[in-house]
Amino acid sequence: MFEGRIWVDTEDYALVRAEGNPAKNPSFWTKHVHFVHTYEKQGGFWFPLSTGSVTDARIFGRTDLTIEYFDYKPNATQFAEGIAITTQGFRQQ
Fold first, then answer.
1. Nearest partner of 19 among 40, 38, 32, judged by Cα
2. 88 contact partners, CB below 8 Å, separation of at least 6
């Protein structure tokens, strides 16, 4: 759960962006956490594009983290209830 804002696509009603702070402080060691998740449509699917966060810790100070997602490729393999999605660089087990 978080306190913040979300942006929703008007055609697909899909989540485009979520930005905010955790509803409760996750740890005594953190003073403040702010995050931004963004999503992008590729073909008929919505995929995570990036996740960024800034954390102010009591001892270590400020920490910035950015994760960028890429190389999503829908796979034509059909399953009982959907379509398999694979990404380059991740192994399926």
1. 38
2. 71, 73
Structure tokens at 35: 């995050």
Instruction: Give 9's DSSP letter.
Output: -
Residues 6+ apart with CB under 8 A from 10: none
Q: Give me 87's structure tokens.
A: 């990404």
pLDDT digits (tens, 9 = 90+) for 31-74: 999 999 999 998 888 999 999 999 999 988 999 999 999 887 76
Task: Report the amino acid identity of residue 55.
Answer: T
Angstrom distance (rounded) from CA 47 to CA 86:
11
